[in-house]
Amino acid sequence: MPTYHYRCKNCNYDFTEQQSFTDDPITVCPECGEEQVRKVYSAPPIEFKGSGFYRTDKSK
């Protein structure tokens, strides 16, 4: 299951939650109870392994 990062706009409480793709996003802050929670998006980590990812490794 994917882990999502949330932040409350009201109290700035940060938390992560494991949710299924079919679950509704969390909207109520567990800290202050307000409906000000939004998902925090960030770039996923990318890791290149093996040959073929460098200029010197182009097809031979």
Automatic annotation (TrEMBL):
<dbReference type="InterPro" id="IPR013429">
    <property type="entry name" value="Regulatory_FmdB_Zinc_ribbon"/>
</dbReference>
<feature type="domain" description="Putative regulatory protein FmdB zinc ribbon">
    <location>
        <begin position="1"/>
        <end position="42"/>
    </location>
</feature>
<dbReference type="Pfam" id="PF09723">
    <property type="entry name" value="Zn_ribbon_8"/>
</dbReference>
<protein>
    <submittedName>
        <fullName>FmdB family transcriptional regulator</fullName>
    </submittedName>
</protein>
